[in-house]
Amino acid sequence: MSRLFVLILFLATTVAAADAETFVPVANDITDNITGIDFVSPDTGYLVTQGGVLGYTHNGGRTWLTSTIAPGIVFEDVSFLDGRHGLACGRGGALYLTRNGGRHWENHSLADTIPWLLSVQWIDSRHAVAVGMTREGASPLVGFTLVTSDAGNSWQRQETLGIGYGELFLADSGPVYFQSFGKLHMSRDGGQTWRTIKTLEGTPGRVTAVNGRVGILAGAGGRLMYSHDNGKTWNDVSVEKTNAFTCLRMISADTGFVAGLGGIVLKTTDGGATWTDISLDASLSFDIYDMAITDDHLLLIGQYGTILSAAIE
Hints:
By secondary structure, the chain is mainly beta. The chain is 5% helix and 44% strand. It contains one helix and 28 strands. The strands form seven sheets. The chain has a four-stranded antiparallel β-sheet with strand order 1-28-27-26, with no helix packed on it. A four-stranded antiparallel β-sheet has the order 2-3-4-5, with no helix packed on it. The chain is globular.
């Protein structure tokens, strides 16, 4: 092997390592699975667990304090409008509202305990949406949507748009999105009406991210697809790993991250067309359920109270 080739190989490896995010554990007292996380500013963020716990940080996720929303409630997601108004949703129709930053929570849970509310999202000071699934007849995956137009005081169920609902995503430009099987749903009026866009058939989609004309969808079985024309056409992406993707974030129209079960983490720098594997080392690996991006850090949360942080390269 020539010295020139060795030098080129060394330089290529060094550059690749420099471009990869390095994840480190964030100490905390949580032992439940952490299922949802949301930041309202680079410093202030909130998370929920499957044991009814609320976590909160005021230093960008470097340290976390905890309190209890409702003991024993399996929460799946959390959304804060600002430092005071927050929503948490979960299994058994669980739906809770706070108006004072999480010090007190009002119980707005459904009387029907069959639905699982898997995702919740504030849109503005009066409007919010919660989505999930319920069992109707022989199908256990019937889509379930709730909307509020009075700041969470009352909720109305909407007509089902499909099966296998995924996570809500609020774009910076205003629309809110979620997926059902083979479809992407978008609302520009606070969830009152929805426009449906056909995507690709196959495994169910779970998570959505949109930045300008670029959209990325991910889900079970390592399913990834992208659009660079406002969802008019969708392109399948083949990746080696078939782990279920559970979370997705974009920091620009080019750069984004997707993560999921088994510690898988992928990064794109071309709007989802190609992906680099930056998955966790075996010593850190865990099932990732959600992620958040602050000014310059990526936070991964999930199994057994695990929180990891990495500076974004």
